[in-house]
Design a protein that fits this description.
- The protein is an alpha/beta fold.
- About 45% of the residues lie in helices and about 20% in strands.
- It is built from 15 helices and 14 strands.
- The strands form 2 sheets. Strands 1, 2, 3, 4, 5, 6, 7, 8, 9, 10, 11 and 14 form a 12-stranded mixed β-sheet that branches.
- Helix 1 crosses helix 9, helix 8 runs antiparallel to helix 9 and helix 8 runs parallel beside helix 10.
- The longest helix has 30 residues.
- The two termini are about 35 Å apart.
Length: about 450
């Protein structure tokens, strides 16, 4: 590990370039709270979370002040509620969702994730109830985040779950129509969901994780952008290999910052340190954009030729730098392309250069997937399910994590603007040409796992 003086010198060099700790996420195991009495479950969950995470906000504030690095979000991830509440029905799940939201408010936590079902190979009655409860749970709460793992490289794609999710997303959007369907921003649908992800909406406390664990997500698109600009400003002849090396070196330094802070937070709250996730997660702020990194690399038309190759270079270099810096790198480390949360990507959608087909291609070489995509409000549940299936298929075949956050914006069409505010940002609504695959989706069943599933 680098010493504090090394970290502080790095921070001093990068402090004007949007370096931040995007998320400190404490994972809390709740399986001991399982009970047939839902009132008792809610009480046990509250006691366990307060006991483990009661000092998290204060610890993050103290350590942020100590090093002068903003910690943007303090979060909690819990064991997948679909399993904790096995045997319970929709009303009990909703009661738990409201209780978890109140706990987050009482603790001053920004988000609580883990309203989660793992259904890649099939659904239990509790899983079906959880998915059915999503519209109410996401519209009636402010800080609760949900996720569903509907596919994996070893199980294939659960199309029955995606069809049910398509309807749940539509209803969630309608219930939050006054906020442009904002409830859907808090739901991720995954293939190969990671157990140690600190980023919402997909964070949950994995079954194989310690009982109480701190995972940290560090983000700095602006840092990487400025590093490339400095490299180009030297006047020396450089090639893409030089650019990759500069990104890798920058990722190394940023990862060191993250691990130091993560270990200090974990020690302060008496939890185990899990992983540092170095993901270039943009914000709507100008200068804090993955799209701007691609532009400074020479791809002036986002969505045009070269976009996928440049993103592949960026994603690979970030992962290599992080892996060299720490043996505790995990989560989804790489580059995110959440359209609404990235000013440059949102502009490219508005200009018409970045279309859904190109976004899908770019997701094959980056982290996550079709993230924060606003689509027309009249998009059918079947079309949403088909689009999710397309994205998850990329993850299944390539043995990588992919996910979707799709927001059908009620009453709006392609070209109109969806506005969510804060870190969730805003974007023009993207066109979905030929959005009809009803017969394919309604056939249901499970798309079998590819041959790679036999690797064990």
């Amino acid at each position: 590990m680098a010493g504090p003086e090394d970290i502080l010198s790095t921070v001093e060099m990068l402090q004007r370039e949007h370096l931040d700790v995007r998320a400190v996420t404490m994972g809390v195991d709740l399986f001991e709270c399982a009970d047939r009495d839902i009132d008792r479950v809610c009480g046990l969950m509250r006691n366990k979370i307060l006991r483990c995470a009661g000092g998290l906000v204060e610890a993050c504030s103290d350590i942020a002040d100590k090093y002068g690095i903003p910690i943007v979000n303090r979060r909690i991830a819990i064991s997948p509620i679909g399993d904790v509440l096995a045997g319970h029905g929709e009303e009990a799940l909703l009661q738990a969702a409201r209780a978890l939201d109140r706990i987050a408010v009482d603790l001053g936590i920004d988000f609580i994730g883990g309203y989660t079902a793992l259904v890649q190979k099939g659904m239990t009655s509790s899983d079906r109830a959880l998915i059915a409860s999503l519209p109410a749970a996401l519209s009636e709460t402010n800080r609760l985040c949900a996720s569903v793992n509907a596919a994996s490289s070893h199980a294939g794609i659960n199309m029955d779950a995606l069809y049910q999710l398509g309807h749940a997303i539509k209803e969630t959007a309608e219930r939050t129509a006054d906020r442009d369907g904002f409830g859907c921003c808090k739901l991720c649908v995954f293939a190969n969901i990671p157990e140690d992800n600190p980023f919402m909406a997909g964070a949950y406390k994995g079954i194989g994780e310690p009982e109480c664990v701190v995972n940290i997500g560090v983000s700095g698109p602006g840092v990487v952008k400025r590093a490339i600009e400095r490299l180009k400003a030297t006047g020396d002849k450089i090639d893409l290999g030089d650019v990759a090396e500069e990104i890798k070196n920058t990722a190394f330094r940023v990862t060191r910052v993250g691990e130091l802070i993560g270990r200090e937070v974990a020690a302060r709250v008496g939890a185990e340190f899990g992983i540092v996730d170095l993901s270039l997660a943009p914000t709507p702020a100008i200068g804090d954009s993955v799209g701007e990194i691609l532009e400074v690399m020479g791809v002036k038309c986002l969505g045009g030729p070269g976009s996928t190759a440049a993103l592949a270079l960026l994603n690979d270099a970030v992962k290599k730098g992080g892996a060299f810096a720490s043996s505790s790198v995990g989560g989804m480390s790489g580059a995110f392309i959440p359209v609404c949360e990235d000013a440059a990507l949102a502009k490219a959608v508005g200009d018409g250069s970045l279309r859904i087909e190109k976004l899908e291609a770019m997701t094959s070489v980056c982290s996550v997937g079709l993230d924060m995509i606003a689509v027309p409000g009249d998009t059918t549940a079947e079309a949403l399910a088909a689009l999710m299936a397309d994205e998850l298929a990329i993850g299944v075949v390539n043995r990588k994590t992919t996910a979707t956050r799709l927001i059908p914006v009620p009453g709006k069409k392609a070209g109109d603007r969806a506005v969510f505010g804060g870190l969730f940002g805003e974007s023009p609504i993207i066109d979905l040409p030929c959005a009809t695959a009803d017969e394919f989706v309604r056939m249901g069943g499970r798309i079998p796992a590819p041959l790679v599933s036999l690797n064990n």
